[in-house]
Design a protein that fits this description.
Elements lengths: L8 H8 L3 H10 L7 H9 L2 H15 L2 H16 L1 H16 L1 H16 L1 H13 L14 H11 L1 H20 L1
Helix pairs in contact: 1-2, 9-10
Length: 175
């Protein structure tokens, strides 16, 4: 019954209190294709009630400082591992190479920046980064580059580079 309902091998093993390997072996013998965790999550996430419940639980957990601290520590530990770092870097490069992913991320970014509350929160976080203030004349699409340069070379040098980039962009647009 569980297999017919689309349960994963681990969910079936847990429900029946038997080993995962026994379930996998049984599925192979019976030629039953059990969904992966990813497939099961996608199916569950498509249900609006499940989605709302999971979203609420996630928001509640993320509001807890202890949970956030544990998550932060886990991320720092994972990123300290060169293999994890390489795998994540490769995955991001692969994702960003996909034009559909780039378009989707671009739309999400534009939507976020259009929200004044989100915009203020991001700018406040950036201003707090090393005490660097982003000049008001700075184009949004060059602000990250400015912050990186300011951290490396100082604010004046970064501003000079950004002014030069702006002039070059204007010249290209005029040509």
């Amino acid at each position: 019954m569980l297999a017919a309902d689309g349960a994963t091998a681990s969910a079936i093993a847990k429900a029946l209190r038997i080993s995962l390997s026994a379930i996998v072996r049984w599925a192979e013998e019976e030629l039953i294709q059990l969904p992966t965790r990813s497939q099961a999550r996608k199916k569950a996430w498509a249900d609006p009630q499940v989605r709302a419940r999971m979203s609420q639980a996630s928001k509640k957990a993320l509001a807890d400082p202890e949970v956030r601290a544990r998550m932060s520590q886990a991320r720092k530990k994972a990123w300290a591992d060169p293999q994890v770092r390489a795998r994540m870097s490769q995955a991001r490069k692969k994702a960003w190479a996909d034009p559909q992913v780039r378009a989707r991320m671009s739309q999400a970014s534009k939507k976020a920046w259009a929200d004044p509350e989100v915009r203020a929160r991001i700018r406040a976080a950036r201003r707090g980064a090393g005490g660097v203030l982003i000049p008001k004349w700075m184009p949004i699409d060059l602000q990250d580059k400015f912050l990186d340069l300011a951290a490396e070379q100082g604010e004046e040098a970064a501003a000079s580079v950004i002014r030069r980039l702006k002039r070059e962009m204007r010249a290209e647009a005029a040509a």
